[in-house]
Design brief:
Blueprint: H1 4-18, E1 28-36, H2 42-58, E2 62-63, E3 66-75, H3 79-92, E4 97-99, H4 104-114, E5 121-123, H5 131-134, E6 141-142, H6 155-161, E7 167-173, H7 176-192, E8 195-202, H8 210-215, E9 222-226, H9 229-241, E10 247-250, H10 257-260, E11 274-277, H11 286-297, H12 313-331, H13 337-349, E12 352-354, E13 357-361, E14 367-378, E15 384-395, H14 403-409
Parallel strand pairs: 1-3, 1-4, 4-5, 5-6, 7-8, 7-9, 9-10, 10-11
Antiparallel strand pairs: 2-3, 11-14, 12-13, 13-14, 14-15
Helix pairs in contact: 1-2, 2-12, 3-4, 6-7, 12-13
Length: 424
């Protein structure tokens, strides 16, 4: 999609719009941002940038008394592309703060890179692999969104006790974020008595799902889909063509607007799908509704030219990450001296009163937040949206387990955790 100077130009236009009417300063603060503007997750990256631009606008294009200058670098969701983008922004463009990255495996790589650049503070944009903040955390890396396992808090209990799905199979992309999502689902669902009979893993960018669809077991109550972007749409099209009609359970990016706003009728297979995420389209809270209105009211230009009916999980993640940066800069009056010491203290102690609920950070600088169990329905306009069926507050990264037990369970993987009624 947008690369090189085109990306920077689009960002500059958006920032210029956001800063209209704001007091100008001779000084600027350079914010580097990465997003998946290429490949399977392009639609996710574009909505992430919409969230970032909303945060810039909310702060009138200023942070810490300085004008915000944004430099954007494109990735394709691979760790190598994320590190290349981060290195360009940090080492060539000399940004003051880095907001990066979007996708799970990217997050682990950027966290590791941040350890080689202690002069820069990195705020995670949206990525959700557990290891990014839990395993050997970087003292300069902060994450204001929950991880993929936290985003499934409440889902296992709901599908077992309310939907009565006693046996499921899972289909998910073969990388760190979806390992983390299935990890969170399994820990809760299996303890309730649920059974996961088979787990299918597909590469990012899969176009032909026929072998997986033909191998799906018939003796399950539902199928969990941990897919996103073009992969999600491709699966739904092919599943419908094959006559599939099982109950579906969705991963966090399977049922947000990056998929629910896609063209074609295949997405209607998701009506009635239960899922869980750090946001819900139809969240009735005034702060969320105000955020949705701000998103919808943005001029239809730049990234907003093809905006969704309402913001996705990526939009709110990028918004919150940028909002935290700008508020911390305001608090320290733009002071990034002494190795960003004051700035990092402000980030660490921040209580973010976000549109999707209060966010605080734990000892690893990882978000503790609110999760939403949802169901896909048609709204009064005929659009597909996720409605709230259960709210789970104060979700911590260890999901209620002690550190000793959580560490014994081990890290998310293709076969971990095993489906058991008790852990470890």
């Amino acid at each position: 999609m947008r690369k090189g100077t085109g990306i920077a130009a689009a960002a500059a236009i958006a920032v210029a719009f956001a800063g209209t009417g704001a007091a100008k300063s001779a000084e600027k603060i350079k914010i580097g941002v990465t997003a998946t503007l290429e490949g399977t997750y392009t639609v996710l990256g574009e909505d992430g940038m919409r969230g970032y631009e909303l945060a810039v606008k909310a702060h009138n294009g200023m942070a810490g008394g300085k004008e915000i200058e944004t430099i954007v670098a494109s990735t394709d969701a691979s760790p190598d592309s994320a590190v290349r983008a981060a290195k360009k922004l940090v080492e060539q463009d000399k940004v003051d703060v880095l907001i990066s990255p979007l996708s799970g495996a990217e997050g682990i790589a950027v966290k590791d890179y941040s350890k080689t650049q202690p002069q820069i503070t990195v705020i995670n944009a949206a990525s959700g692999a557990l290891e990014t903040t839990y395993v050997d955390p970087s003292p300069t890396f902060f994450r204001y969104n929950m991880d993929g396992a936290q985003w499934h808090a409440g889902l296992g209990d709901y599908i077992y006790n309310v939907k009565h799905y006693k046996k499921i199979a899972t289909v998910a992309e073969d990388y760190a974020f979806t390992y983390t999502q299935v990890f969170g689902l399994a820990l809760e669902y299996c303890q309730k008595g649920g059974e996961i009979t088979k787990r299918f893993w597909v590469p990012l960018g899969t176009k032909d799902f026929s072998s997986v669809i033909s191998s799906l077991p018939d003796d399950v109550d539902a199928i969990y889909l941990g897919l996103g972007g073009a992969d999600a749409v491709n699966f739904l099209n092919q599943y419908q063509q094959a006559g599939g009609n099982a109950h579906l359970v969705g991963g966090s990016i399977m049922v947000d607007q990056t998929v629910l706003s896609s063209k074609g009728k295949a997405k209607e297979a998701l009506i009635g799908t239960v899922a869980a995420s750090g946001m819900a389209d139809a969240d009735p809270s005034p702060k969320w509704q105000a955020f949705v209105k701000a998103y919808q009211d943005m001029p239809k230009e730049g990234y907003f030219k093809n905006a969704f009916a309402s913001p996705s999980l990526l939009a709110i993640n990028y918004y919150n990450s940028a909002d935290a940066v700008f508020k911390a800069l305001d608090e320290v009056k733009g002071d990034l001296s002494d190795g960003n010491k004051k700035f990092r203290e402000a980030l660490k102690s921040m209580v973010l009163d976000a549109p999707n609920g209060k966010i605080t950070l734990d000892e690893n600088r990882q978000a503790i937040g609110t999760n939403f169990v949802t169901e896909v329905v048609k709204d009064d306009k005929g659009d597909l949206v996720s409605k709230v069926v259960k709210v789970v507050p104060d979700v911590q990264q260890r999901l209620g387990f002690s550190k000793e037990v959580f560490d014994k369970i081990g890290l998310p993987g293709r076969d971990n955790p095993p489906c058991k009624k008790s852990y470890p």
